[in-house]
């Protein structure tokens, strides 16, 4: 490494991050630049670089605090030894180390093992070895590796099924170590031979919303997904900006603000509002005003206003600025009227200047998701709608599996017991709900 070119050194560093963090995206501010420098200058080996990454706070947050112990062990095997665990005895031993000796001792147990040294030495970046059968290893590791690897484009942080176990059932069941002979696989019927009549009469399931994530999952797995959503939000808690605090605390607040206001979407360094960030750090802006500037920025407009249908934009504004889903169709209609009569910036102000925002977040608390708990004076419709709007903790409102379509428009319109009041009493407004129901010959509620 010390004698290599800067380009080759950077290639090694990127490969190490990719392997140790399971292809998860890391922001520039999350990288460990100090130990990168130590690696490039030859002060530490690749093995020690891997050790420091795996013991970092970021790794701990992603793969220990947000996962069950069993899932953590699976991922440690994958990230540090490049393979899946071989049997339940291996997992039991590492769980014992984790519980009795702690997280750092658990990481050391992989890196100080003979297997690691024989496979990678001190200066080879760990890589996935499970794609090939290995001398002295049974075929369980080979087959299990394919359960841990979903594809080159996904990551261990952002998975469709979240952080439930991939191998526990297989390992505890002591399933066969042999791969099924291809000749023994039953013949699959040719779908082209099926009659058109049978297809026409067959009821096809419609997969929408979170069914994309739950389809094919057991009841236990679905419960774990919901629990992980709830636990992660609850454990985060409110983040408050203290003007007299340290620079590191200010950076943490700014990072949380971008994450909340931009719906977990990735923001490039060149897209950040550095002038506004500086004003917040100097105490010239409150968090509330910082939120206002972000939501009125061209970047926010380009992502969530210009490229989204109107009702989807309203849903996202509620989620990003008030931390909840809209309670009723009247709420979205109210903001639509502001948008038409007063413009985009006035609509953003209507959220941030509302009594609800002031009571929930004040001037210096970063907005956060409130919709995971039922709230006094709020209907349960908003509570249930919040789960519809949050597909996954790892996806973003920019890169959504359902695209930019509205999530709640139909449910809100079907729960509209109160007539919409016109903006100008002298100019009556046609109720779009009644119009649609009349056109579709639906019964009025």
TrEMBL record:
Localisation: Cellular thylakoid membrane
Domain of life of the native organism: Bacteria
InterPro entries per UniProt: PBS_linker_dom, PBS_linker_sf
GO cellular component: phycobilisome; plasma membrane-derived thylakoid membrane
GO BP terms: photosynthesis
Membrane topology field: Peripheral membrane protein
All residue ranges annotated as the PBS-linker domain in the record: 1-157, 219-398
A Pfam short name: PBS_linker_poly
Keywords: Antenna complex, Membrane, Photosynthesis, Phycobilisome, Thylakoid
Tagged with keyword Membrane: yes
Database matches in Gene3D superfamilies: Phycobilisome linker domain (1.10.3130.20)
Family: Belongs to the phycobilisome linker protein family.
PANTHER family: PHYCOBILIPROTEIN APCE (PTHR34011:SF6), PHYCOBILISOME 32.1 KDA LINKER POLYPEPTIDE, PHYCOCYANIN-ASSOCIATED, ROD 2-RELATED (PTHR34011)
Protein name per Swiss-Prot or TrEMBL: Phycobilisome rod linker polypeptide,phycocyanin-associated
Native source organism of the sequence: Crocosphaera watsonii WH 0402
Lineage of the organism: Bacteria, Bacillati, Cyanobacteriota, Cyanophyceae, Oscillatoriophycideae
